[in-house]
Fold these 3 entries.
Entry 1:
Amino acid sequence: MNTVLPLLEAPPRTLQLPDRAREGLARTPFGLYVHVPFCATRCGYCDFNTYTADELGPGASRAEYAGTAVAELRQAAETLGPDLPTVSTVFVGGGTPTLLAADDLAAVLAAVRELFPVADDVEVTTEANPETVTPASLATLRAAGFTRISLGMQSAAEHVLAVLDRRHTPGRAVEAAREARAAGFEHVNLDLIYGTPGETDADWAASLDAVLTAPVDHVSAYALIVEDGTRLARRIDRGELPLPDDDVLADRYEQADATLHAAGFDWYEVSNWARGEAARCRHNELYWANANWWGVGPGAHSHVGGLRWWNVKHPAAYAGRLLRGESPVQDTELLDDDDRALETVMLGLRLREGLPLTALSEVGRARAADAVVRGLLEPGAHAAGRAVLTDRGRLLADALVRDLTD
């Protein structure tokens, strides 16, 4: 059972890590996540912790955000020291990180290098909307040390982008990917969403074909999830749009996998494909391995040695705490051994390598044997002591995780 550790009424100056969380700190892969909570407009399907200019209110601004993020990075170094872990990955996500000036993102990365030991082969990723980057801004980011970019394409069909409330035009994402390659980015990813109301088989095929014209070595494809409280959910509730159909979503996934595999991409996590091991997103692999990371920014989540915490959500509250020299942490929880074992299964089963059967309980191992019979786990891998999803198992991965961990 998780142990929730409530913070004091007045937040402490910095987060205090218990001894248990420090165990193995130097030996465990460590990454930094920097959340940029700004968006030009709110996409209809999105429930992330993001804010348009009209939603920010007083006390927070894009212009000052880089300095605020650096203030939390200083707290992180103080809290984790004196034996700081080496940073192996940095991921700047959002929101739309590239709404900040490229020089601001470069300044945040420079602060990381100033405050932490950084691996020689560090992977540094930024997310970006295609309409918010230019050849000049991409060149600045690359010169600053960014090695990887993930562009939100979602679809090549104009009417699908309209349903999602995306602002870029069809073709811009592919163009931005070419600009990123020209700027020297080592790895380029395009994100897709499938199952949007009104999307046809031909639309999805055209989106996949468009991706393959781009100089990318990584593709992410996610089924549309209708989140409560979003504009998309309200439109569906009013009957303006139909709910995504599960059978259609399965067909879309199989089509994506077949198309990408034929083009030289192999899946390494249920929703992610890469051209070889070097193209995998190492930062996401760090999450899936339940390693350590510090999340910077409003609402960002962190995990170190079984201690999880999350920051206050609104950018003004976040900035105010840091301005006063206080911790931005909203709350914490300490995971026990059972919690961590459960997360290992939940995350590990989604990976191509799967997980050892010994990670499952006795009941879970019996159910894994039954999953082999049902065609959801690979029989050869099971005989060798691992639970590895079959192609059919990938379609039912979430349900299988629940079955193996109940």
Entry 2:
Amino acid sequence: MEISGIISAIVVGLVIGALGRLVAPGKQKIAIWLTLLVGIVAAFVGTAIARGLGYADTDGWDWLELITQVVVAAVGVSLAAGIAGKDRKRVER
């Protein structure tokens, strides 16, 4: 992967993180940087899943890959919110 590919994956990951936060149920009390980090990781993981299942390289826009990335991001944001929520409760006591 070239540097331009990595940079574009990071930019896409930022958007994926924001979409994942919108799709995730409930209110997420996590920092925006954590949402963006989850989105970047979800972009890479979603692409790996799409390639593993064989639907990453299609003609035109890869909608299934994008949906996979957003679902992975929503799960990641929900997990991060659950973990961060537990940490905040300990600090407040």
Entry 3:
Amino acid sequence: MPRAKSDKDRKIFVLDTSVILYAHNSIMNFAEHDVVIPITVLEELDQFKKGNDTKNFEAREFIRLLDKLSQDQRIDQWTPLNGKTKGFFKVMMHHPENEKDAIKIFGDDKNDNKILNVAVHLMETEKARKVILVSKDINLRLKAKSLNVNAEDYETGKIKNITELENTGKYVMDDVEPEAINKLYEQGYIEAKNVLGTRKRKSNAYYILKSEKNSVLAFYNSEENVLERVDKRLAYNIKPKNAEQTFALHAIMNPAIKLVSIQGVAGTGKTLLALAGALEQRRDYKQIFLARPIVPLSNKDIGYLPGDIKSKLNPYMEPLWDNLKFIQNQYKETDKEFQKITELVNQEKLVIQPLAYIRGRSLSNIFFIVDEAQNLTPHEIKTIISRAGENTKIIFTGDVFQIDTPYLDSQSNGLSYLIDRVKDHPLYAHIKLEKGERSELANLANELL
């Protein structure tokens, strides 16, 4: 189909490989504007076709989508995207004959420079239209700007205001009547309107209620429209050390809440509380899964590490085993609780594995803890939750500001996406742990270094 070029308001977006691997359907999210895929991107995607990681899935799905959209047309010509409000797309070949040649300027025949050359070529040949390179690679965006090429991050699904997530889940009220707090202590609950009045109420929110005389921790039960008193309780001999940990353990052990996210810096007890809560409820579930994504060191695959597959994975899983050992060491070796943990591991009732090993399994009757969830993409978070079957509970823990995965940041990672999209759902609760409880020395590192 011939491409009409009279509409100068239509922008041209040039997509980098990182955008495709982040979201295979990204090509469909540029409204009425046009999209260009450099041939270098297709060549790079070809290297990602095989494998079971999310990036492999995204590469395969994008190639299928491109094939479906192009049908019997040549992909190097403008081809309509689906829908009347959509623009057009095409694949462009290498263009080293530009006035500005990124390969010569940067002195390297690498793929990033070939992608830059496509954007430069479009700027030189489509002078009436705005050309924008879209990449999740910050370095590539900087190189583009050095050539006076407009460059942007892929914004779809990105959290606009990360600071709003900081206030999700917990609220402090200082002007509560002492009688209301007394009633909460006496009967364990109080009608929400007697304390919250006309304030907006969010499902599964937690409150620190204070008066001049006393204070109490409370949970808003949206189904009953009441505030319930929250008490500190032990979970496999692990006791919460502050209000936020008390709230987190309450959410972890509340059977009505099926999805929990716990945000906090290192040492705040996220994984420890989740695992202790899981062990306390072990009789209610067929298995406990504790998993975390593998983020290769220096962006190298784990194949670079020495030893067999178990040796390669041990460094990544060791922090999870440390939490389990800490809980087990709350008891003597002769105690039945100590022996029960060993038995759960030996019988594979409690499984600690890389997330890639669990992805694809049926998640029915499972207590599933996903550690370091900030290193997952929104699509990975969605995939995990969508596999949940009957009687499954999922806990995501992590720190949205401690990103180890290339092309993710505090606004685009899966944990931030989850907190933003699912807040106020009756099946979901979120808690931010603020105080480090590992040691005073660890607190010093988090606060001052």
